[in-house]
Amino acid sequence: HNTAATGTAQTGYSGTQTIQTDSYNGSYRLREATRGNGVQTYNLKKTTNYSNAVDFTDADDIWNNVNANLDQYATDAHWGAEMTYDFYKNNFNRNSIDGNGYAINSYVHYSQNYFNAFWDGTRMTYGDGNATDGNKPLTALDVCGHEITHGLTSFTANLNYSYESGALNEGISDCMGTSIEFYARPNNANWLIGSDFYTLRSMSDPKSYGQPNTYKGVNWATGGADNGGVHTNSGVLNYWYFLVSAGNSGVNDNGTSYSVSGIGIGKAAAILYRTLTLYLTPTSQYADTRTYSIKAATDLYGAGSNEVLQVTNAWTAVGLGN
Ligand code: ASN
Ligand code: ZN
């Protein structure tokens, strides 16, 4: 028999946060039922065997045991999943990734020296990192939001995970992951991906991490590696999203001068969410995303609005003018 409880977590990356847990058999677990059909976070104990995963437990629901197993970072995954649920619920009234309460299960301490995190179609998995990032777990808030958003994408546009549609799939996860970071941790948010443990990408300056900021421009990946460059060519969507949110001016790789006035990350998220959930399809390309994001902005803010103008200007900036 279990009872809902409210705990306090000293997270690894996000300071002290309130989390929902439950009380069971004399201790507390990272399980809750206040959001949809539940948010659960499990311990793989450095194995890859999901059927042997166990609960993380705490004696008093004040999760402050910093230990050599790095168990404190499990609370980051749990809180990150809760904040991702809240972001979609509070902003778009969406009840989890499928709109129907889909249980969000996360698995921490996957394997050994594993420097990645992934959504496998049903759940999240996080490695503990390796020497590259100083052995820091991958449970940063923006990465939690990124991985869970892969689930949202699979239930909506279901963008094919290769070449351009795959780059859009990746970019959408970065854009929403960063939006979730700004939503849940507004005083400690940035446009980098994974900077809590090791910066993987920059949305405000994709070229500084080997990504393109212009469609088919410098750093655009053309080969089959990485499913057709999905983690590289996502830089174009990322920079578009940064521009829509925060604005910037400059000259792109085609020699086109641009100036975008940011409309804020909240409106940018609303436009991208509507584009993803209403208009994109498995085979959508960058040109389609331009068309439908302008349509989404028109739906939300009206034809001729400043929002539509800046969304359009940002596409011109990344090399997708008409
Ligand atoms: N962390 C990576 C991602 O979510 C895993 C992968 O390559 N699919 O994109
Ligand atoms: Zn991804």
TrEMBL record:
Residue stretches making up the Peptidase M4 C-terminal domain: 157-319
Residue positions of the active site: 147, 231
Residue ranges constituting the Peptidase M4 domain according to the UniProt record: 6-154
Membrane-spanning intervals of the chain: none
Family designation: Belongs to the peptidase M4 family.
Official protein name in the record: Peptidase M4
Organism: Taibaiella soli
